[in-house]
Amino acid sequence: MEDPASGTLSPDSAGDALPELELTDGDILDAMQHIPGYLDITTEDFRIIYHLAHRHAVGRLFDKAGAAGAMQAEVAPLLPEMSLDEAVKALVRSGCQALPVVDSEGRQLGLLLRKDFFGAYRLEDLP
Q: What are residue 110's phi and psi, to 5 degrees?
């Protein structure tokens, strides 16, 4: 949405998800020179189109995305009776930052977080 006081576009919730790269007039003029034919727009018109296109693209990427689309579904959970050594090895092999700890019925009891374990034991440099 355009801010009447400054004539610039104000960010909305979708625009906050990914910061826009500020374009200079030189950036815009260089891009416009690569478009065949005649363009009858100013650099400010181009900048407004860019802001609107960015907002649209971010919305398209994130507005309809849910947690299910971002999660890693195929992880082997940890069992509470596993030794810490076994659990940490499984965590490192998984490549995840955390793994669920589940009981014998598959109910989640908690998470083993990579940063918590490695930080507590000063193992930040391990893969």
A: 170, -165
